[in-house]
Structure formats: structure tokens, C-alpha cells
Amino acid sequence: VPLGEIAEVKAGPSGARLKKLGDHPGGIPVVTPSDFTDDHRVDPRNVRSVPESAEQSLSAYRLEAGDLLVVRQGALGRLAVIGPQQGAWAFGSSCLRVRLCPEAAATPAYLAAHLEQPETLERLRGPAVSSTIPSFNAAALRDLEITLPPLPEQERIVAALADMDEAIAAKLAVVERMRALRPSVFSALLEGGLHE
9 - beta bridge partners? Predict the structure, then answer.
């Protein structure tokens, strides 16, 4: 099924609407691709904002929990699922917002998993506008064919992928600990070798 039949796809605001993007305490946070994490979340620590006076001009670009943001310029295919903490925030001009229709038989987590698959990314990159910075538009994302198994199957797929991600994270943590210990092990072995 084309994504546009189960979701609204909206391009981010023009750069002119975000010209005051910066550090504005009490302002409207604006999510940009630099705020995306590898596990498809938004890291709020460095999210910039616009003054509250921009609220009316950004009303059509507000986020809701369960929305997906997809990078449309540069690092194509990066995405984030919006959590409850980011509800009512806005999104930046280099993103496309995907909001599932209420009647859609799909979950945000399944859609995110589908969109990050190499085959899907390749299909998205196919219609990408070739320029110095690769990009694609909302129409290309709307036309993207999505495989929609029944909801229980979607949940099973998402759970299996989450288990894999957890195992990968655990292995990476071990690798990082080993890397951190390596200099100490070298020093200890060198000192031990000198005393023999």
C-alpha cells in the first residue's frame, strides 16, 4: 500500500520561518536531524528553539506522539519516532513528518522499522533529486509502497528487532569496556614483564 494512503506526509517549514532558531528559553523546541539518535528517538539535550512569537507560523508543523520524522536532505533515511515528551514541539525544514491516519492498521514502531530497511532506503534513494546534497520530497515518500502485515505480526516483528537491538547494544558495551581497559592491560603486562 502506498504510504500516502495510511499517513499524512508533510514537509518541514521553510527556512525563513526558522531564521530565529537558537537558544530561546521558554520558546518552541524544533527537532532537526542532529537531534535524532541511532535508536530512532529524539535526544532533547541540544534541541534548539524559536521564540514563542513564532507559534502561529509553526502551528501546521507541530508534532504529536507517534509521528515519525524522516530526514529528506543529506543523510537520507535517518528517522526518529516522536515520544510523548516531544508532543507540541515543531520540526525543522530538512525533515518530513509522517503521521499515521487514525484508521491505519500500522504502528509507528513497525513503520520506522520498515522505513529503515536497506531495500526501502534504496527505493527512496531512487527518486532522490540528484544535486550536491541528495534529497527527496514528500511526494516520493507518499508514493513509497509499504508492506502491512496484520497488527499482531507487526508487533512480533518490532519485538524481535528490539531484542536484536538490545543484544547489539550489550555487545557494543562490552567492546567499549575492552577498548577502555586495553591501555591499562598493556601497562600492567609491561610492568609485569619487567619484573620477571
Answer: 98
Specify the amino acid at residue 7: A
φ, ψ dihedrals at 7, nearest 5°:
-150, 155
- Are the C-beta atoms of residues 124 and 77 closer than 8 Å to each other? yes
pLDDT in tens, the chain (196 residues): 999 999 999 998 887 777 777 778 888 899 999 999 988 999 999 899 888 888 888 889 999 999 999 998 777 778 999 999 998 899 998 899 999 999 999 999 999 999 988 888 788 776 555 555 666 778 889 999 999 999 999 999 999 998 998 898 889 889 999 999 998 888 888 887 655 5
Q: Is the Cβ–Cβ distance between 100 and 111 less than 8 Å?
A: yes
Q: What global pTM score does this model have?
A: 0.81
Per-residue 3-state assignment (H helix, E strand, C coil) for 53-100: HHCHHHHHHECCCCCEEEECECCCCCEEECCHHHCCCEECCCEEEEEE
Instruction: Encode burial over 99-128: b for 16+ CB neighbours within 10 A, e otherwise.
Output: bbeeebebbbbbbbbbbeeeebeeebeeeb
